[in-house]
Amino acid sequence: MKYVVLMASLPPLGSLFEATAPPISRLKLESRLGLLEAADLQALEQIANLIAWPSQPLDRTDPAFIAEAHRFLAAYRNPTLRRLVTQRLEMRTIVAAFRRRRRGEAQPPIGEVWGFGEWVGLIERNWGAPTFQLEVIFPWVRQAHDLLEKDDLIGFEKLQFSVVWAMLDRLGAGHTFDFEALIIYLARWSLVSRWSCYNGDVAVDRFRKLVDAGLGSHREIVSGVSQ
Fold first, then answer.
1. pLDDT tens, 133-159?
2. Global pTM?
3. Cα-only R_g, the chain
4. Could you identify which of 42, 49, 93, 219 might form a hypothetical disulfide with 115, taking C-beta atoms 3.0 to 4.6 angstroms apart as the criterion?
5. At residue 126, what are phi and psi to the nearest 5 degrees?
């Protein structure tokens, strides 16, 4: 019942790239989350720590981050939340590979944990291929490569927003008044919030700085409500 009341109180978010501001402020949104129980808030915080990076320590290593992700997946059996975390971290791994290669790494990291998920081995074996041979599995990877080849960092950023938005749409199918629906709403709200105050020049500067960042030490496109 609490999820019905909470979700019914949240306004529709509309489309991602048309909003000039989220339909509900961060303050009001956080206030609504007061309806949640401690266990729900803990799960929300853990998910935000994995996919949001609102206040990640800059010295957090990739192995430590990936170990935390595996601890979450071992503790939570909810299939939708597991897919949400897994898919976001797989996407982040692909983007990290693009960034590593862009800064001149001719081969994948040797003898270190740098990526998450089942596609790390494929990426490593196909490091020199434009799309890491991932375009059949992730069609957006071809467009990402082409945008980076043209040095279109703004387009690359917008593509990431679009891919995550579509991912959340798929994950939200069948969820309307439950905890999963709330998590997906918060992730979508965060995208709307970030895009509505998007600054292309800042985004380009951020990308260039992130070229030197690892998987778990930078902030990406989905920021949590606790930011």
1. 999 999 999 999 999 999 998 899 899
2. 0.86
3. 18
4. 93
5. -120, 35
